[in-house]
Structure formats: structure tokens, C-alpha cells
Write a structure and sequence with these properties.
Order of helices and strands: HHEHEEHEHEEEEEEEHEHEEEEEHHH
CATH topology: Nitrilase/N-carbamoyl-D-aminoacid amidohydrolase
Mean pLDDT: 96
CATH architecture: 4-Layer Sandwich
CATH superfamily: Carbon-nitrogen hydrolase
Shape: globular
Number of domains: 1
Distance between the termini: 54 Å
Structural class: alpha/beta
Number of strands: 17
Length: 382
């Protein structure tokens, strides 16, 4: 996009001498991560289809009692393909074709688990607070067109696919949810998990469409490892991250849709902090581009009416339990980020730092039980 910075990493590389850049990168991102040698076919596909592809290795120490548990994680960030006033089926079909091509390339490169961005099948129209036509993008989590489409790709490449969609729950009165569908390596729908925290921040007043999820903090035991999905706004709530760890997650994905003026200073911190605090890997995914809508809307913050609500800044990254993280993808381009990670690192960091051993769940539980009572008084000493 014109006028938008491509990435922080490119600016650092451009202006900091190479010798100093290594130290700056270490301070900012932790240990230096080795770049993956990506297949020529993947690089050619990325060039022809005009998306960025990056890959990094996050190793663990060799152990005598356990073999390595290396898996390849893939994250996809993208712009919408068709304008928001195009026919709905045309918008969905274009996104299926675009993302399907990237998934095919990732599958050929050996990616085991891939996650798409929040509400990947549609523009992020929730900002408009209009119901028509946007509710027509909603679909069944179990047998909707996107699930059927991705199930074939999952089985073809023996890949676990996480598909965040606007769900229409026909079994419960056609209500809508912000949902992530987990499809296993055979193409079977393992289950779904719903967004726990719903923003009410200006344009992001999403409770017009759906409310807080009712699936708790599910962890899915896939053939490649235990995964969970903390959808978008849930990343602002540390206890939400913590509960996925309590339930045994080894990787927590955070598919998101967030714009530069609102959240960017927090973006590189929150998922990384969660990886450290909970001794698991985190994957932060954010869409890119600006989406213009047919009619103006306001933000409920005193600003004038507008047809878009800012620039989705991408910058997707993977963070490890030892505090290291990959550089982010571009702020302006579609992209695929691949991480070759050894899940043994999760337990190694638990042993090293003892964060899980020294946390006080008993103390928190007692305090929170009191805090939710209607006659609660904060424990303040005067």
C-alpha cells in the first residue's frame, strides 16, 4: 500500500550497520534464528502469485530420553481479493482460490499445521455494524463451504488446518459466532472453538454480530501436537492465554484483524509475553490492507464518518517459550510464514524457568472466587 511502511525489520536492516544489527536483533527478538532453506517450487509460487514467504527454525536442545518433536507451522496473512461491494459468492470464491493456492504451496513444502487469519472468508465488515449483507457470509462450522473446501486440502497434504470463520449455528436458532474450525490431517473436523472476548472499542464493536463464546479454553490433541486458538481480542487478556496452558497447549494461534492506529504498539508484545509466561509457542496472524465499504459509518468516538477504518498491518510472527521470536511478515503484503519448531522446547523451558511450577493457581482461584462476588471489597490496606 502506498505510504505504508513495509516492515520494521527492513528499516532496521537499511539503517543499522551489519555488526550492530546482529546485537540489536538479539536484544529485540532474542536468540538469532536460522532461516529455513525453502523449496524452489515454493519460492517460485510466491513470486508468481505475489506473496511474501519466510521461514525460520526454532530448535530445542537434544535429549537422551526423548526424540526431537519437530513440526512445521504455517501462518497466512492476506488482503481481501474482491471489493466489498462485489457479489458475496464472488468474494468468497476469490478468497478460496487465493488462500487455496498458498495452502497448496505450503503443503508441498511440508507444513504440518497451518492457521488462517480471523474471518478469512470475508471482509472485516463487523466495523460497519450493518447486518445486511454481511451476515450472509456466515456458514456452518461442520459442513459449510469453507470447511468442505479446506477438508480436501487437509487430507491431501495430511495437514491440520485452522479456519477462523463467521459461524452460523443452525442448531441453536441461527445465532452467529466468531469461530475457529480445527480440521485434522485426515480432513475430519475435530471441533471448533469460539472467541472468548468481544471488543467494544469504536469500530470494533463486534457484539452487534456475536457475543462471548461458550466453548471455554479447548485444546486439540492433533497428531502433530496439542494446539489451541485464542481469537483476536483474547490476546489482550493474560488469564485467557494462561488457561490454554493450564489445559496443556503446546502451540496457541492468535488469528486477528487489527489496524495500525489502534493496537500496533501492543502487537509484538502480547503473543510473545504469552509464550514466555505459559511455556508454549504462540503464533500471531493479522490481515493486511485497507477495506473500503459501500456506505459510511462512524466509530462512536467523535470522529467523522468514513468508509474504511484503517490499515491492517500484517506483521505476523511466531514466538517461542524461551522468549525468542521470528521477524514479522510485511505490513503491506500477503504472506506465508513457516516455522520449523521443536516442541521439546516447551518442557525444556518449564524445567529451566519454573514459571509453571511457581505460578499460584490456588491463590488466584481463591482471590478470583472472592472478586466475582457482588459484595466483594478489594484487599486494600490504608
Amino acid at each position: 500500500m502506498a505510504g505504508e511502511l513495509d516492515s520494521l525489520e527492513e528499516v532496521l536492516k537499511k539503517h543499522i550497520p551489519e555488526g550492530e544489527l546482529n546485537e540489536v536483533t538479539r536484544i529485540l527478538y532474542g536468540k538469532q534464528l536460522k532461516e529455513l532453506e525453502l523449496p524452489a517450487e515454493l519460492l517460485a509460487n510466491a513470486e508468481s502469485d505475489q506473496y511474501q514467504v519466510k521461514g525460520y527454525c526454532i530448535p530445542a536442545l537434544s535429549e537422551e530420553t526423548r526424540p526431537k518433536r519437530n513440526i512445521k507451522i504455517g501462518l497466512i496473512q492476506n488482503k481481501i481479493v474482491e471489493p466489498t461491494d462485489a457479489p458475496i459468492q464472488k468474494q468468497v470464491s476469490a478468497l478460496h482460490a487465493r488462500i487455496g493456492g498458498i495452502i497448496e504451496a505450503a503443503g508441498k513444502a511440508g507444513v504440518n499445521v497451518i492457521c488462517l487469519q480471523e474471518a478469512w472468508t470475508m471482509p472485516f465488515a463487523f466495523c460497519t455494524r450493518e447486518k445486511h449483507p454481511w451476515c450472509q457470509f456466515a456458514e456452518s462450522a461442520e459442513d459449510g463451504p469453507s470447511t468442505l473446501f479446506l477438508s480436501e486440502l487437509a487430507a491431501k497434504y495430511r495437514m491440520v488446518i485452522i479456519s477462523p470463520i463467521l459461524e452460523r449455528d443452525e442448531a441453536h436458532g441461527d445465532v452467529l459466532w466468531n469461530t475457529a474450525v480445527i480440521i485434522d490431517h485426515t480432513g475430519r473436523v475435530m471441533g471448533k472453538t469460539r472467541k472468548n472476548h468481544i471488543p467494544r472499542v469504536g469500530d470494533f464493536n463486534e457484539s452487534t454480530y456475536y457475543i462471548e463464546g461458550n466453548t471455554g479454553h479447548r485444546v486439540f490433541a492433533t497428531v502433530y501436537g496439542r494446539i489451541a486458538v485464542n481469537i483476536c481480542y483474547g490476546r489482550h487478556h493474560p488469564p485467557n492465554w494462561m488457561m490454554y496452558g493450564v489445559n496443556g497447549a503446546e502451540i496457541v494461534f492468535n488469528p486477528s484483524a487489527t489496524v495500525g492506529g489502534l493496537s500496533e504498539p501492543m502487537w509484538g508484545i502480547e503473543a510473545r509475553n504469552a509464550a514466555i509466561a505459559n511455556s508454549y509457542f504462540t503464533c500471531a496472524i493479522n490481515r493486511v490492507g485497507a477495506e473500503t465499504f459501500p456506505r459510511e459509518f462512524t466509530s462512536a468516538d467523535g470522529k467523522g464518518a468514513h468508509k474504511d477504518f484503517g490499515h491492517f498491518y500484517g506483521s505476523s510472527y511466531i514466538a517461542a517459550p524461551d522468549g525468542s521470536r521470528t521477524p514479522g511478515l510485511s505490513r503491506v503484503r500477503d504472506g506465508l510464514l513457516i516455522g520449523d519448531v521443536d516442541l521439546n522446547l516447551c518442557r525444556q523451558i518449564k524445567d529451566k524457568w519454573c514459571f509453571r511450577m511457581t505460578q499460584r493457581l490456588d491463590l488466584y482461584a481463591t482471590s478470583l472466587t472472592e472478586a466475582v462476588k457482588h459484595d466483594f471489597k478489594p484487599d486494600i490496606v490504608y
